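This is your field. Please look over both lines of this record.
***
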Amino acid sequence: MDNQDNEKYLAQKQQSLYPKTFGRPDVRREPRRYFGWTLARWLLLCSNIVLLLYGMFFVLGCIVTYAKGYQRAIVIVVANRDILAVTFTAAFLAVITSIVGLVGIRWKDRRVLGIYALLLWPCFALLSAVGYLSYKGDVWNLRAKLGMQWRYDFSPQDQIALQDNLHCCGFDNPHDHATYFARCWPESLLPGCDYKFYLFEHYFLTKTYIVTFCLVPVHIMIIIISLLCANHVDHLFGTRPRPLIAYLGRFHDWRDWEQSRLKQVSLDDKKNYPLSHPNTPPEPIVTRARTTCTDHDQSMVITPRHSYEKN
């Protein structure tokens, strides 16, 4: 309650000091509060919680995968190193970003919220990269890429791990680039790893890019909320004094400088064109036309423009 009373006192003081509100409650009203917080602050909190939830979910999923905590984890670790690494980086950065946002929301610090809004963009780029890599891997001739990966990229230890987990031997058959161990030898009756490996990779990559592309619009909404609501985390936005502009000197802003210049110009005009008889009323203006004719005294002859005017 003390914090709310202090904010109200500061808002009233700012309204009395600076003419932006003109001291009128109908010019700038205090925004409505919900349980002591502004609506923008609640929106920031909800969007930040969503970011924290899916960031923590993917961080835990990557940790469990690296720790080989389920049956097919070794297949993902061996065959999808790049996707797993980018996913872990994106999720970890999302958690760090959400923590920064929570600090800014708690202390109503616009600088911290600006850093939070800036960090959301690398998270968006990494999230899009995960979806792009998984979609490209699934759509662009997956079976041929798996064969090239098996024959040229995997080490013997990787092949043994895949063969042991998928219960197969070799790629097409036990004689096709197989690494022999206790369960796999040339006369083994186990099938090749081509079919099982392809089915699992297709399933994993499809689920990955579907989930990722579903999260992209959610993350875009979080970015929009951060940009729109970061300055309105409290009701003091727009009521504080403007920062000092060094090259304006003693003037507060451009309006003060402009008013001072207008006053100086009016004073210069009075000095350059003083009134000889300030109390004498001005003479009536009569419209006359000057002719080019002159008299003998070289004085100008003035003729009336209308017939009813007299010389």
The longest helix spans residues 194-229. The chain has nine helices and four strands.
